[in-house]
Structure to design on (888 residues):
């Protein structure tokens, strides 16, 4: 059938080599999460629209989903989830009697937001989330745990694939909220949501917005002074105290943040910065908050974020406090993959092309391939029995490094160097670095 | 936030142990496909609705997708794809200049159909497809190739996870169409779509439908006679010839089907049956067609199907003939997973729980876990420092087989047997069968 070709802005798709990179990154995240005892779950892609419409600003970005020919008796309209947290909270409530708490889960799935398409924003995007959720209580050391697991995962992406080093900015909602309460601010949450815009609109615009909310000028000054504090050591504690605000919640926040910084510095020195302007816009955070950027790819903005929530989900009998962090797989990778700056050494898993002399000997070529596969060597048999030169070209176009000639007792040629040697299909193995496609970073 | 708990019929979700099985199955499919040189692609979840509405019967099942607050300038309405073939055809056209043909791809993704919820039917379901697509031409041996790759994958699911043996029914559209043409049938495609209902409504109802289309009684008899032929050997050729119809396309079909049967029998004797009533309802098949069932789970019906299409996609300059086969991951697994008949030995990746004596020694427990992880051993540290009995219970509830006590030079206990021995975190490794959760089939 002839089709209209219709690329859709905001719905990235990759060519096979780029997809290999994405898969490799997802595999690495998954492996790291599983090593730390996080169990995979997948939630359905849709939630009742009413559940998705309760988050204020995001409502207008929700995609509604409806059967083209809906029946009268159909349930209410559905929507595609816009993150993995809302469906996870629902999953925990729905299955609370069958889960063991604290429950450690990871979830790597797409989410959808009908944002205005623009650089670095996607309408369909993959997220990789980890969360630890308790029943009624969850110990504070899990805050550091999810941060360390994510930093370990990002460290592997750096070491294995050349993705830039991560920098995590950390703060604590109790610290901010306690400070605001100590200042006599009436609605700390409203102030937090304004301060969250600091990076986008700058301190003077934030000050004006706060003044517009009726916050007194000296209080605005204090709020902006707190937000300007940033440190890689415990010196932030003295800087906060120097502002002269006293409040019990503030003290708890200082202790928690100091403990988190110490835990990160012990394992990943220099990877965390206390940054007291980090607030996260979402209203459900109640303690630690984190934001990760890749300084060498700073234009991406925040690639990973999360925090502690004391009551994301509640069913009347229990509340389910938790802490989690989400990594934006598409957000981080798509610009590099689509530009070709991040790619793979070949566009196929095949390490070997088994050449075919003539169609009568195809069975012999198939036998070579079957023999190689028993040892985990991805390979394919030439689709035709054209001249060897053409078959080599077939391999070359795909980046397949080896071509096999002459049946099980044959010869194998490294087409990059031209070197060719006798080989037995039951024994020969390519060098480890050629077994699977490798990720390569192409400097612009 | 308190939430209404809303299970949605047709959108299956699994508990962690069941999800481990699903992941393991998907990994096995992927590994098999990659060993055969199939490259992964992912397509976006949505297509322009007009592209999804061209398939006749399926139109009413499409889910339309629309931004809640769509702008005036927004592109036309989108729909969730209902299979992976339509998006793949579009992907091939969109990227034809950048792909190398024949292009071998696999695709493991969800699809959506707003079917009336019923036993074994899902509104959101995962499919695993492989296809080989050529530019203008594709050799016949690829028909056998995709069949053999899928049978190899299903054989691994059987050997590794106890999923029942597969049986593949094969036929050839040229054979049927040639036979009908030889009989003078005016609209062979219309007849094929009626014959496709044989299993559901039986031969007499099919005969009535054909008579209603104006097909003569003696022709109906011949059509039903052809459809009744089934064989595990080439004897089907003589049975067809005994019906006395001669046609060139029929002869080509007989040769192709015989070759496909021979190829399957050479590698997987007994796994294929020629069944001349298999037609596949879709209009784009033009040669080989396949349907797979799991006879021990026959109530599932067809779990995998596919065939040869000579012009699924065309851009005016080129056509892209191909052959492919799709495995219904959710369709095959969900009934067993949801019923608990197929599960895993534990609900977490963790092979080891590292116990914590008291909160002061948590760092020592963390060091044990870090050491185990360097050797690929999934583990977690106890969330609290309660009595050892409680920590062992934590492990037991999750099916974690080992609990570690006493720091890096400590002891490890197999909580299934109660045996406990000295162990060094830098050296100890669990038996291979305990490293990862194992899939288990629970007989009803």
């Amino acid at each position: 059938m002839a089709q209209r070709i219709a690329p859709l802005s905001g719905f990235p798709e990759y060519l096979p080599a780029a997809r290999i990179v994405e898969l490799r990154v997802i595999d690495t995240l998954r492996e790291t999460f599983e090593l730390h005892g996080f169990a995979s779950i997948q939630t359905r892609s849709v939630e009742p629209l009413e559940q998705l419409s309760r988050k204020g600003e995001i409502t207008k970005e929700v995609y509604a989903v409806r059967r083209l020919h809906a029946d009268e008796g159909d349930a209410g309209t559905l929507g595609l989830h816009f993150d993995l947290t809302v469906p996870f909270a629902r999953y925990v409530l729905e299955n609370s009697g069958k889960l063991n708490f604290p429950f450690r889960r990871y979830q790597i799935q797409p989410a959808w937001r009908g944002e205005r398409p623009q650089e670095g924003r996607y309408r369909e995007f993959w997220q990789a989330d980890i969360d630890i959720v308790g029943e009624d209580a969850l110990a504070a050391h899990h805050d550091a745990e999810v941060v360390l697991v994510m930093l370990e995962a990002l460290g592997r992406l750096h070491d294995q694939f050349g993705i830039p080093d991560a920098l995590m900015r950390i703060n604590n909602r109790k610290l901010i909220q306690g400070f605001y309460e100590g200042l006599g601010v009436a609605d700390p949450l409203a102030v937090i949501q304004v301060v969250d815009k600091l990076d986008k609109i700058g301190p003077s615009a934030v000050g004006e917005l706060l003044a517009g909310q009726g916050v007194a000028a000296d209080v605005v000054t204090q709020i902006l002074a707190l937000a300007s504090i940033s440190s890689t050591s415990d010196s932030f504690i003295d800087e906060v105290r120097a502002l002269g605000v006293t409040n019990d919640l503030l003290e708890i926040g200082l202790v928690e943040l100091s403990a988190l910084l110490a835990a990160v510095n012990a394992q990943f020195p220099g990877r965390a910065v206390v940054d007291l302007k980090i607030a996260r816009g979402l209203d459900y955070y109640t303690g630690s908050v984190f934001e990760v950027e890749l300084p060498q790819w700073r234009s991406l903005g925040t690639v990973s974020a999360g925090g502690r929530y004391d009551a994301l989900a509640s069913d009347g009998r229990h509340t389910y406090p938790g802490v989690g962090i989400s990594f934006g797989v598409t957000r981080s990778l798509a610009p590099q993959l689509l530009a070709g700056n991040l790619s793979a050494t070949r566009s196929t898993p095949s390490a070997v092309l088994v050449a075919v002399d003539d169609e009568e000997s195809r069975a012999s070529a198939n036998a070579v391939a079957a023999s190689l596969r028993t040892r985990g060597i991805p390979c394919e048999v030439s689709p035709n029995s054209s001249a060897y030169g053409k078959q080599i070209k077939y391999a070359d176009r795909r980046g397949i490094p080896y071509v096999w000639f002459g049946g099980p007792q044959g010869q194998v040629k490294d087409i990059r160097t031209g070197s060719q040697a006798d080989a037995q299909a039951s024994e020969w193995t390519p060098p480890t670095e050629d077994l699977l496609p490798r990720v390569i970073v192409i400097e612009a």
In short: Chain B has three domains: 12-160+323-344, 167-293, 348-441. The first strand of chain B starts at residue 39 and ends at 40. DSSP finds 14 helices and 19 strands in chain B.
